[in-house]
Amino acid sequence: MVKIGEGTEFKIDIKTVISIIVITSMFVGMYYSLQADIAEARKLPPAEIQRLEYDLKQQWQTDHIEKLEERVNELYNWYDPLHIRNTNKKKNK
After folding, report:
1. What DSSP state is assigned to residue 7?
2. In sequence order, what DSSP letters do the residues of 50-90 get, joined into one string?
């Protein structure tokens, strides 16, 4: 077990000290930059979704769902005859 007290020696080189200072200053800089961006964003009016954007997104989703339904039906039409043929083969055996 290591005891830490007044007599404990802790050696650190200058490169490590400089690295710690640089990293700390980077985090502080990012913090203040983020705070400034937040303050600026608060001054802007809230973003409004235009009716056209909503309609376009709704139309895209509807088209996408319809295409998926068509693909599922195609797969079902392809699978169904195979399934019937395989079940008939099993019954005949």
Report:
1. T
2. -HHHHHHHHHHHHHHHHHHHHHHHHHHHHHHHHHHHHHHHH
